[in-house]
Amino acid sequence: MHLRLHDDKGQTLPLYIWLVGILLFVAFVFFVFAKGAVARSGAQSAADAAALAAAQDVRDQLADALLDDIGNGGWADLIDGQGPWGQDPFGSAADLAGANDSTLLGLEPTQVNGKIAFKARIETNYAVGDSLVPGTEDMQATADATAVIEPRCTFEPSIDPKEIVEFACEGSGSWEIDPKDFDLDDLPKAKDLFSVHLAE
């Protein structure tokens, strides 16, 4: 009887070691996947921030141009988000990418449903880390995102933009501006004229 118990204990020890090894391997796999997920999430956050920064920069430029063109009728195109902007927003996008420990690889002007948009592509400044795929430990994560500038205001097509400045903006009401007599402080802000959001 004593010998049988001793034999049972001897058989249990290898099984215990085998189970512990399996559990440790599973824990390592989850750890590696978690690190990869964190790297991908960080890369996507940086890409989102860079794209939004570019779109917000151009949104502000469009708003400034619109207010400058109140007197000559050019505001009508700008309020539709179709007017030109002055400065390249690459710097703004690069700054936000850098603030998220990433590098802006490219910024491409594009359109989404006819609206001005910017597609940013970034690479993280940090490596993915431990991986189940040999040779990928030192690779940086990459991601891209697109942000859209959405006009919030509309005006009657029959309006003569050189004579009347009148438009309605979602969320901020209607605006009536006398081109010959107006105060800049009373004019709508960029956020009243355009919204900026990530493309779906």
What key attributes describe this structure?
200 residues; alpha+beta; four-stranded antiparallel beta sheet; three-stranded antiparallel beta sheet; 4 helices; 7 strands
Q: How would you explain this protein's 3D organization?
A:
The chain has 200 residues and is an alpha+beta fold. It has one domain. Helix content is 43%, strand content 26%. The chain has 4 helices and 7 strands; from the N terminus they run H-H-H-E-E-E-E-E-E-H-E. Strands 1-2-3-7 form a 4-stranded antiparallel sheet. The longest helix is centred in the first third of the chain and has 67 residues, at 2-68. It is elongated, with a radius of gyration of 29 Å. It starts with a helix and ends with a strand.
Structural class, judged by helices and strands? alpha+beta
Uncertain stretches of 5 or more adjacent residues: none
Largest sheet: 4 strands, antiparallel
Give the strand order of the largest sheet, numbering strands 1, 2, ... along the chain. 1-2-3-7
What gap, in angstroms, lies between the N and C termini? 71 Å
Query: What does the average pLDDT come to?
Result: 80
How much strand?
A: 25-35%
- The ordered H/E elements are HHHEEEEEEHE
* Number of beta strands: 7
Alpha plus pi helix count: 4
Query: Gyration radius, to the nearest Å?
Result: 29 Å
Principal-axis shape equals elongated
| Total domain modules | 1
Kindly state the percentage of residues in helix: 40-55%
